[in-house]
Each structure stands twice: as structure tokens, then as C-alpha cells.
Write a sequence for this structure.
């Protein structure tokens, strides 16, 4: 328990540091994008604004997740991490739409950008994003931290694209480099945002966690636990990606020691499937929850 608490505190600190760095540089990038008239730089600045919000939300979510259960939330506040990931995914999708719209406008009506200011600001942004991503990359055991790291990774790729656009315009004067590379950023971010939304939605809909096979659990318990002759009403879901939960009914032979059977079932669930939070009902004879 102490190890989990310390890990959560480390996640919180990493998110806080990344928020301060990204949020501070965001204003530099906004000014640079306006001065240089660079869409990739402005897109990255907009992404940094969303990143600052996402990092702050994720920080608050991790802080809340360390609170114990109470009378209103009997499972505690762990789902705030998943909610933060879901909202971050939605905002990332919104950003993708804005970048695509602006890119289409500029492809139809090319605009000249100032490559030198854009190159300087984009290079500084790349360094900032590398530092922030390294801070978060070492703490990706949390859904909120993973989604926040994805935002920062998108910023990092955006800085690379902005550097490429500035260099292309500087060397060749070709005005389409800026909107075309902005489209590349949008495609990369869209793929990542979809993955975050899909994973968070699966948890919020109480889907079976990845890596858990209900049929395998039922057969393993029947084979490994003496006295168990069948498993039914088996359900698995998760509070977060790292906190799977399980409920099941076990049909037990009449002479079996129910207390020992229960201990053996929970031991197998922990050792074989890494599920340490389970609710087990043992049935002698007909299951009381079965339909007539």
C-alpha cells in the first residue's frame, strides 16, 4: 500500500512539473506563431494549450485517485484517472479538426510565413517537449499519465513538423509546406486520440480488461481448486487499466470446506491472473440466482 501511495505521488509530481514547463512555453509559441504566421507553430501552440489543461486535469485526477473510498464513492476515486483520459482524448480530437480546417484554408489560399522566427521558436519547443515527455514517460503506469504523455508526444512531433516547415520555406520559399505538414500532425494525433478514447471508453463501459480471458479463469479454477466443479456468473471489469475486478459463483461439492475453497480460489486469481480484488459466492447445489 505504501509503494502504491509513493508511486501515485511520483505521478503527481511528474505531471505538475510537465504542466509548469508546457504551460509556460505555450505563450512563447503563441507569440512566435503569430509573428511568423506559421500554421504548424500555431497548431502546436494550440496543442500546448490543450496539453496544459490536460496535464492539470490529469494531475488533479491522480491526486483524487489517492483518496480512499467514502459513502458516495465506495470504490474510491480511481475512475477519475480514466475520466481524465477520456476528456483528454476528446479535446485532442477537437484539435485535429481545427488543424485540418486551417490547413484546408491555407492550401486554397497560400499564406507567406517568416521562417527564421518560426525555426527558432519551434527548435526551443522541441527541447521543452523532449524534457516534459521524458518526465512523463517514466511514470506511465497510470491511464491519466499515459494520455498526458500522448499529448506531449503530439507536441514533440508538432515541433519537428514546424522545424521542417520553417526550413522548407526558408530554403525553397514553397508556401504549401506549412499546411501540408500540419495535416501530417493531425493524422498522427488523430490515431493517438482514437486509441485513448477507445481504451477509456472500454473501461467506462465496464468491458472485460485486456489480457483477461473469462473462459480460461473458469476452467483454471475448476481444474486447480479442489471441491470446485464449476464456475458461473463470471464478470470482470476494471476501475483503471491497472485495477481489474472480478465477481463469480463457484459450484462446490457438499463435503468441501467452504473457507478453504474460498482461500484457494482467491490465491489462484492472484497468482495466475494478478486479480487481487474479487468477490466470490460459493453455491451448494442449485445457484440461488439461477432462473427457474
Amino acid at each position: 500500500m505504501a509503494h502504491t501511495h509513493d508511486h501515485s505521488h511520483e505521478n503527481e509530481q511528474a505531471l505538475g512539473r510537465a504542466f509548469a514547463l508546457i504551460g509556460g512555453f505555450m505563450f512563447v509559441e503563441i507569440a512566435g506563431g503569430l509573428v511568423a504566421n506559421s500554421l504548424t507553430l500555431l497548431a502546436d501552440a494550440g496543442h500546448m494549450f490543450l496539453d496544459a489543461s490536460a496535464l492539470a486535469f490529469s494531475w488533479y485526477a491522480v491526486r483524487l485517485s489517492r483518496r480512499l473510498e467514502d459513502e458516495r464513492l465506495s470504490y474510491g476515486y480511481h475512475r477519475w484517472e480514466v475520466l481524465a483520459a477520456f476528456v483528454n482524448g476528446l479535446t485532442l480530437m477537437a484539435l485535429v479538426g481545427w488543424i485540418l480546417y486551417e490547413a484546408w484554408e491555407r492550401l486554397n489560399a497560400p499564406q507567406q510565413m517568416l521562417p527564421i522566427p518560426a525555426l527558432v521558436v519551434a527548435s526551443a519547443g522541441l527541447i521543452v517537449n523532449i524534457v516534459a515527455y521524458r518526465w512523463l514517460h517514466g511514470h506511465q503506469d497510470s491511464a491519466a499519465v499515459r494520455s498526458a504523455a500522448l499529448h506531449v508526444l503530439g507536441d514533440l512531433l508538432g515541433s519537428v513538423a514546424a522545424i521542417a516547415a520553417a526550413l522548407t520555406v526558408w530554403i525553397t520559399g514553397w508556401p504549401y509546406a506549412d499546411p501540408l505538414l500540419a495535416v501530417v500532425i493531425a493524422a498522427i494525433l488523430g490515431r493517438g486520440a482514437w486509441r485513448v478514447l477507445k481504451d477509456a471508453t472500454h473501461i467506462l463501459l465496464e468491458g472485460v480488461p485486456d489480457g483477461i480471458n473469462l473462459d480460461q479463469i473458469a476452467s483454471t479454477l475448476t481444474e486447480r481448486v479442489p471441491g470446485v466443479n464449476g464456475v458461473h456468473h463470471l464478470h470482470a471489469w476494471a476501475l483503471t487499466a491497472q485495477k481489474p475486478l472480478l465477481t463469480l459463483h463457484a459450484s462446490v461439492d457438499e463435503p468441501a470446506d467452504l473457507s478453504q475453497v474460498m482461500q484457494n480460489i482467491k490465491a489462484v486469481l492472484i497468482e495466475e491472473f494478478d486479480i487481487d480484488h474479487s468477490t466470490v459466492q460459493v453455491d451448494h447445489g442449485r445457484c440461488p440466482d439461477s432462473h427457474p
